[in-house]
Inverse folding.
């Protein structure tokens, strides 16, 4: 009788163990396929974005009279990704990511790419804040905390211009801190990258400036930077409502 009862218990434990193992395998497979789809879609969008730039170069290089022109204007104002205006894309070789940068931060937009939270716009003089989720799996800005001073970030905008930015400051900030959204960049192009840390208690904040020839970013501490200065180019600020986006980005 005891042996039968013991055998039944073992059977139940075995069944439960198999169910748990299958659930874990299913979760791993689901995450892998979801992440692959995200990355594949992003790669396809960026390829189409680059092709649109190349096609614009080709089509606008010759005018209607057959005369070659060097004054080309590329119009990608209607280029969208997932229903959002795609302003360009970001590449960070050190953590092997390449994603579209969308114009607006919403709950959905930062589930499919990264997005502009505030600032003057990609590759414009001044500061532009780009936020992305930390899913702790390598997707989007999950590996942002692995970056180091001196690592490179590349931004390609709608004009086809690609600019290299050099990381010069990395620090943590509270989720409600938005003081770095607007700051004096001394007339330089700069970007700010933001995501939550692995515990979701703080934000990882990264400053990067346009790298000039022969220059590498110097290490600065947050207190060395005037976070409350208003940018002289604030009239060109991308139309993002910072206050309405704060609630969305607090869990990134």
């Amino acid at each position: 009788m005891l042996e039968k009862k013991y055998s039944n218990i073992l059977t139940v434990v075995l069944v439960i163990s198999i169910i748990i193992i299958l659930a874990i395998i299913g979760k791993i497979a689901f995450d892998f396929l979801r992440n692959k789809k995200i990355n594949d879609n992003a790669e396809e969008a960026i390829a189409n974005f680059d092709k649109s730039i190349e096609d614009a170069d080709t089509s606008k290089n010759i005018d209607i009279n057959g005369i070659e022109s060097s004054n080309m204007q590329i119009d990608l104002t209607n280029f969208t990704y997932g229903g959002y205006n795609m302003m360009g894309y970001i590449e960070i070789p050190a953590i092997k990511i390449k994603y579209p940068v969308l114009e607006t931060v919403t709950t959905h937009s930062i589930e499919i790419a990264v997005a502009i939270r505030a600032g003057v716009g990609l590759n414009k003089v001044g500061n532009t804040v780009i936020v992305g989720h930390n899913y702790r799996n390598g997707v989007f800005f999950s590996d942002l905390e692995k970056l180091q001073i001196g690592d490179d970030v590349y931004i390609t905008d709608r004009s086809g211009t690609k600019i290299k930015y050099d990381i010069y400051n990395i620090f943590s900030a509270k989720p409600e801190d938005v003081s770095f959204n607007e700051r004096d960049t001394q007339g330089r192009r700069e970007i700010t990258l933001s995501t939550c840390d692995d515990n979701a208690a703080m934000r990882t904040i990264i400053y990067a400036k346009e790298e000039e020839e022969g220059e590498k970013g110097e290490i600065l501490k947050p207190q060395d930077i005037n976070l409350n200065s208003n940018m002289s180019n604030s009239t060109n600020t991308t139309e993002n409502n910072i206050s309405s986006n704060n609630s969305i980005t607090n869990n990134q």
Remarks:
- The two ends are 56 Å apart (CA to CA).
